[in-house]
């Protein structure tokens, strides 16, 4: 009996990046973000068969070390970019984002709705699952897009889940014959690791 076609995808939410207005594509990592990216490399380099990344600098900088350490390809995929909140800087970021989670078909001027961003994210994941059966794929992406992709498979992953993500964060999804069979967090931020050690 043939074994099921299983693809494992580790979704990596980028490490800490200082906010810079109107610089979504180019803003890089902070000093803390660079240190955490090195820890992410150590966490995933031994399992990665291929690394795919959003073209945004903060996502690429978080996972490119994995590709280097593992000696595997680094592939940019525009569809793993972050959800476009609006065409211009938004003053009240928190309320703007909360509105979109509550109204998934709504969008701000020049921005994407959550339905639109979710559809491209899910399509990108489905392409990877089809292209890399039996492999472990690392995806460098963004918090909202990652949460929206998970939400498409399980509605429990919504606004509260998104607000609880760390920078960076790592979730491992197992797909069997294209269907999501399991999703677990594999990353423990330094502060949580220290707290666990103190218990």
Automatic annotation (TrEMBL):
Pfam families: His_Phos_1. InterPro entries: His_Pase_superF_clade-1 (IPR013078), His_PPase_superfam (IPR029033), PGM_Phosphatase (IPR050275). GO terms for cellular component: cytoplasm. CDD domains: HP_PGM_like. One of its GO terms (molecular function) is phosphatase activity. PANTHER family: ADENOSYLCOBALAMIN_ALPHA-RIBAZOLE PHOSPHATASE, BROAD-SPECIFICITY PHOSPHATASE YOR283W-RELATED. This is Histidine phosphatase family protein. It comes from Haloferax marinum.
